[in-house]
Amino acid sequence: MQFDYRHFHIDCRARHADEGVYYARARITRIPQKNEHFQSHDSGDIDAFSNEADAISCARLWAIEWCDEAASQMSNEASSK
User: Fold this and answer.
1) Counting C-beta atoms within 10 Å of the first and last residue's C-beta, which end of the chain has fewer, N or C?
2) Domains and CATH numbers, the chain
3) What is the per-residue pLDDT across 11-23, written as a single tens digit (0 to 9) for each?
């Protein structure tokens, strides 16, 4: 599942492990503004689930929280300059 949220592009996936579970994962890319470098964050394995849909749902919620925190930090840094 791919979607854009705030200034981020999010790619949520489920990694199927040998033991039969699905691990939630997310890759978050910040859409660069003028003169900014490309930025990317990979969640790694977030949590394990018995089905793919639950893993992707978890990855989506985790990514949105991560983006909200990152956007808040960027806003705080910009206002302190």
Assistant:
1) C
2) 2-79 (3.30.160)
3) 999 999 999 999 9
